[in-house]
TrEMBL record:
<dbReference type="GO" id="GO:0009055">
    <property type="term" value="F:electron transfer activity"/>
</dbReference>
<protein>
    <recommendedName>
        <fullName>Flavodoxin domain-containing protein</fullName>
    </recommendedName>
</protein>
<dbReference type="InterPro" id="IPR029039">
    <property type="entry name" value="Flavoprotein-like_sf"/>
</dbReference>
<dbReference type="InterPro" id="IPR026816">
    <property type="entry name" value="Flavodoxin_dom"/>
</dbReference>
<dbReference type="GO" id="GO:0010181">
    <property type="term" value="F:FMN binding"/>
</dbReference>
<dbReference type="InterPro" id="IPR001226">
    <property type="entry name" value="Flavodoxin_CS"/>
</dbReference>
<feature type="domain" description="Flavodoxin">
    <location>
        <begin position="4"/>
        <end position="89"/>
    </location>
</feature>
<dbReference type="Pfam" id="PF12724">
    <property type="entry name" value="Flavodoxin_5"/>
</dbReference>
Length: 123
């Protein structure tokens, strides 16, 4: 099976993680801004993006390629600059004058299975 890593990165952290995953797995990796970033050429996908203002940074690319993405096994990973825990939220509230934050986990890096398991894996 032919797999690939597609990523988007603003400051380079997600690109670094994509490179590490590529080195560990032998999969090619592409920035979604590259012309050759075509998910329909592959059997399974690893997708990486930071979350900026509550949206995946590559949400427009995903929308354009949704049919190809949804028809293949895919894994999503996200990289955040925030440290573990919630201590950073107090400063963010002040800086952005927000009064409340959602209660989801603030893990600095999470890999989430969004479609189904990769071929040959369980779980």
């Amino acid at each position: 099976m032919k797999g690939v890593i597609f990523f988007s990165s603003r400051y380079g952290s997600t690109a670094q993680y994509a490179q590490w995953i590529a080195e560990a797995t032998g999969l090619p990796s592409f920035d979604v801004e590259e012309e050759s970033a075509n998910p329909s050429d592959y059997d399974f996908l690893v997708l990486g993006s930071p979350v900026i203002y509550h949206k995946l940074m590559f949400h427009k690319w995903v929308k354009r390629n949704l049919a190809s993405i949804m028809s293949r096994p895919a894994i999503l990973f996200s990289v955040s600059g925030a440290g573990p825990g919630r201590s950073w939220m107090a400063g963010s509230r002040k800086a952005f004058r927000l009064t409340s934050f959602p209660t989801w986990s603030t893990s600095p890096c999470a890999a989430v299975r969004i479609r189904r398991s990769l071929p040959g894996t369980t779980g």
